[in-house]
Amino acid sequence: VETVRHPLLVLDAGLRVRSANSAFHATFGVPGGQSEGTPVAAPGGLDIPGLRDRLARVADTGEQFDGFEVEHDFPGAGPKTLLLNARRVVSEDDGSPMILLAVEDVTDKKRAADSLRRLNDELEARVRERTAQLEAANNEMEAFCYSVSHDLRAPLRAIDGFGRELLQSYADRLDDRGRHYLRRVRSNSQRMAELIDDLLQLSRLSRVEIRYEPVDLTTLAATIAADLRQREPARQVTVVIEPSLTARGDAGLLRVALENLLGNAWKFTSKKPHATVEVGRVTDNGPPTFFVRDDGAGFDPQFAGKLFGAFQRLHHERDFPGTGIGLATVQRVVHRHGGTVGAEGAVGVGATFSFTLPHGDDV
């Protein structure tokens, strides 16, 4: 009895204390030796409604109880939450029935559980609030995209169309400078339309539902490379694609990412008479890292952190045309899959763009 670390009482059939351990005395502020021989309700203030009847049934019938939870303000210990367990035993001396009453003080546990429950309730409320805010933001984004699609494209098409009509029907009435200005008007309106298309695609990537499935990246890259060759059959580009590149992810989104990476590699090697583009994978301890490498124009490494931002360009448009959205699109796709992107390069040497997919190649 004395070695048990929880409060423990031994009661006789009349519910008087025969023995109490030190843990009981410490918990309830009862001096040692003052509890023996007193009624159970006396020491420590165990005058708890219903407890005497339960203990009497234990003594009379052997009915036991476990986990009887009580909350009580004890004179020597203050408010506490207790779990009580009781069993009937028999005295070896005279065969009389006795009761072992074990007390577990769960006050701190109960307070911690209540605190955790309150925190969970607050967290759930915040999540609901945040979800509502995100839904509102998505609705605003949908409205913005609708406005961009319909309200901005129409005047751009009109500008381009009327500029084309002027060049076709009134070119003989304009001098060289006038025709040059009209061509610039058309070129910039077309570029604006391309920017709008790329921005819309970038915004859609944040809303589309990801469907994870096995994806053959080798076949996907080969198909994209074949399309690029078909557009520029005169280019001399060696494309090396590692076999058996597989991953789990959204096939449509991963195709968008590879189209942008391979399209960039194709574009930035356009100044070389003979270029090489590689698609492969590096496997270390973590998830596999896929890469697209080229030996083209490259970039200054000190600006690598800017590459994946929207509208970030490290080359002049007259040298390498584009909207500056491609790598931002790649980053959005990879982040939607829970992965990371990276870039390495040097001016005039080439560039390597890499990305990880946490679901790996377990297909």
How would you describe this structure to a colleague?
This protein has helices at residues 22-28, 51-61, 107-169, 176-205, 217-231, 251-268, 326-336; strands spanning 8-12, 17-20, 65-74, 78-90, 97-105, 213-216, 237-241, 246-249, 275-282, 289-294, 341-346, 350-356. It is elongated and about 125 Å long. The strands form 3 sheets. A 5-stranded antiparallel sheet has the order 2-1-5-4-3, sandwiched between helices. Strands 7-9-10-12-11 form a 5-stranded mixed sheet. It starts with 7 loop residues before the first strand and ends in a 7-residue tail after the last strand. It contains 7 helices and 12 strands. Helix content is 43%, strand content 22%. Helix 5 (217-231) packs across helix 6 (251-268). With 363 residues, it is of the alpha+beta class. The model has no long low-confidence stretch (mean pLDDT 83). Strand 11 (341-346) and strand 12 (350-356) form a beta hairpin.
